[in-house]
Amino acid sequence: MNNLRPMHTVDQIGVQERVKRLKARSIKQKSKLHALTLTLSMIDLTTLEGRDSPSKVRQLCYKATHLHEKFPGIPHVAAVCVYAPMIKVAKEALRGSSVKVAAVATAFPSGMATLETKLAEVNQAVQDGTDEVDMVISRGRLLSGEHDYVAEEIARVKELCGQAHLKVILETGELVTLDNVRAASYLAMRAGANFIKTSTGKVQPAATPEVTLVMMQAIRDYHHESGRRVGLKPAGGISKAKQAIQYLVMLRETLGQAWLTPDLFRFGASSLANDVLMQIVKQSTGIYQSPNYFSID
């Protein structure tokens, strides 16, 4: 297996130490409520199972727009993420709301298909009205040294996306080293990604603080070089509000205030919203409510 050629060697021990320090940060109650509300607005509610059905997608879309009826000031999530055949169902269910539809594509989750097949899938997703495309890269080709192929793959998908935003999934759990994660992040950004995303959620480990920090640092350095802001989406394994706040602290310290927006940061999650809602109600009323008071997946 050939590693990607890193433009910058990642100090793994340094990354681990910085993550440890950032995790130890505490925030005041008022700031915590703001962070929780911001987290909610950054979530991509996700259902990516073989048993997905139109009724399940409609239920998820209902949850996305009716998170907690007793607290009307609570924001909606950013998007609902589904398989491409469910785009039209989701678009209809979300009609009139500001919640976007994101569709996974390019032979998700493996990426094991011809480029022509992947492009046809993306083209259909765009025709069906998706707002965002979450593509997977060909990790086998990447790790075999076929970097130009992967860059071309991303660029061709980006061209087809038109007005739809492109999130490029690196599947960091298969990239072996943090050097590879950084190099793959740069490759994706230079090829036109609007967002880079850690994981499909189907491979372990998925999002980790260490991987996410390396991707944030790559985004920061790329922005300094190019002037273009690229978003980030950690996905998989983030299910608790406490974890999400730690990621926001890391984001603020690494990329700054400008990235604290759903336009540039998302959480890929299916269960995070409920825990965030419970914490918001606790911060607002001083009382924990049962999960039964909230909409379920």
Features:
alpha/beta; TIM Barrel; 46% helix
In percent terms, what proportion of residues is strand? Answer: 5-15%
Shape: globular
Name of the CATH homologous superfamily: Aldolase class I
Strands of the largest sheet, in order across it? Answer: 7-6-5-4-3-2-1-8
List how many beta strands DSSP finds: 8
At CATH level 3, the topology is TIM Barrel
User: What is the CATH architecture assignment?
Assistant: Alpha-Beta Barrel
| CATH class membership | Alpha Beta
Task: State mean pLDDT (0 to 100 scale).
Answer: 92
Topology order in helix (H) and strand (E) letters: HHEHEHEHEHHEHEHEHEH
Radius of gyration, taken over Cα atoms and rounded to an integer in Å: 19 Å
Ranges with pLDDT <50 over ≥5 residues? none
Give the N-to-C terminal Cα separation: 40 Å
The largest sheet, given as strand count, sense and whether it forms a barrel, is:
8 strands, parallel
Number of domains: 1
SS-based class: alpha/beta
How much helicity do the residues have?
Answer: 40-55%
